Amino acid sequence: MTPYAQHYNLLLQHELPSHTLLEIGYVGTSGTKLPRFRQMNQAYITQAQIDRLTPDVRTRMEIMGIPDFAIDNIILPAGIGAIPSIARTPFFGYAQLFQAEDTISSHYNSLQVKVDKRFSHGLSSLLAYTWSHSIDGASVFFGSGANATTIFPQDNYNLAAERGNSDFDIRQRLSWSVLYQLPASRRLPKALGKGWQLGGILSLQTGQPFSVLTGQDNSSTGLGNDRPNVIGDPNVGSHGVNRWFNTGAFTPNLPLTFGNAGRNIVVGPGFHNFDFSVTKNMKIAETANLQFRAEFFNIINHPNFALPANILAAPNFGTLFQTPDAAQNNVGLGSGGPRLIQFAVKLNF
Predict the structure, then answer these.
(1) Do the beta carbons of residue 253 and residue 246 sit within 8 Å?
(2) DSSP 166-221
(3) Residue 329 pLDDT
(4) Could you give the 3-state DSSP secondary structure of residue 70?
């Protein structure tokens, strides 16, 4: 079936004084039959599942060339975890089988507010605020997820456990842009005293969610997508560079089990940024205009951080270790980096 999305909204607009428009609305989207990848040959981890395999696991291990003595005296007495994962798969002889499915649904709901002041008296401004929540069973089809965690389910036979916050679920975002045209100065020569503009863009948003992984194959599925068990609230307490979330809220999942931690239950650091610009427009001919621009990205040099280390077994678990521009492989030029100053000249004719 072809994936499809339904969009719905209700908007109210009201004209305010000073050429200002107020807009308040509800915006929602529902996605149906969205695509995802699933590993359909995940190794079985319960005795009931293994008992259904044909040929049985002992015959499979013989085909794999494992000696009878090792099978009967070492592997089988040690339990399910000792049986090679490839001998516990439903399709014997294949390590992994990936299947594309149209099985995902998504839901997005938001309250959106916008205050738009059209240009008058040398000033224009646009203020936008969004309060939203997005839920799905997978946020990407193929590739590394937006939050750097695996795109495959923890348990490929229990896709319902993957339903949670979308990778891009930013609960609150505020954006404000302003442009002010300075009055002409009579104290300066005409060429220097007019055509100046000041601009600014303020961006504030709450953090992006992410999943915690154990970094160990305790489930013995051979996939390495295990999530841990949750024993507390991971989002409580202080948030610092060395410990962004409550790392004590997680413990490793027991052998041959999957953790009860949900997908994308931890919230990463927010984003705060202010860009400033100074522009000088100068007419040099009847149909030609010269523009000088000085742009200051993250002018206050506020530190922003990408998602923290999310592997429970890693020594840096829970720490903030890179900025968003580094996470985007665009150091210094991508959003979220340190202060960057740029000068430009543009000729329009």
Answers:
(1) no
(2) -TT---EEEEEEEEEEPPPPSSS-HHHHS-EEEEEEEEEE-PPEE--B-SS-TT-S
(3) 74
(4) helix
Tens digit of pLDDT for each residue in 243-279? 999 999 999 999 999 999 999 999 999 999 999 999 9
Tell whether pTM > 0.85.
yes
Query: Span 100-116, mean pLDDT?
Result: 95
Q: Please give the Cα distance from 118 to 135 (Å, whole number).
A: 35
Please check whether residue 134 is in contact with residue 108, taking contact to mean a CB–CB distance below 8 angstroms: yes
Q: Let me know: does 118 contact 19? Beta carbons within 8 Å.
A: yes
- The answer for residues whose C-beta is within 8 angstroms of residue 16's C-beta and 6 or more apart is 22, 115
Nearest to 90 by CA among 52, 46, 47: 52
Structure tokens at 50: 């293994």
> Hey, which residues does 34 pair with through a beta bridge?
104
Q: What per-residue string of b and e applies to 94-104 under the rule 16 or more CB within 10 Å gives b?
A: eeeeeeeeeeb
Structure tokens at 184: 């002409």
| Nearest CA among 68, 3, 14, 58 for reference residue 36 | 3
Confidence of residue 37 (pLDDT cuts 50, 70, 90): confident
| CA gap 295, 73 in Å, rounded | 72
In angstroms, the Cα distances linking 128 to 72, 200, 203, 317 are: 68, 14, 10, 35
* Amino acid identity for residue 114 in this structure: K
Q: Which two tokens stand for residue 20?
A: 């200002």
Q: Rounded CA gap, 10 and 324, in Å?
A: 34
At 223, the pLDDT band (50, 70, 90 cuts) reads confident
The DSSP result for 15-35, as a single string, is: EETTTEEEEEEEEEEEEEEEE
The DSSP letter of residue 44 is: P
* Residue 296: strand, helix, or coil: strand
| pLDDT on residue 327 | 79
Asked if 96 and 39 count as a contact pair (C-beta separation under 8 A), the reply is: yes
Q: Vertex 97, ends 213 and 31: CA angle to 5°?
A: 65
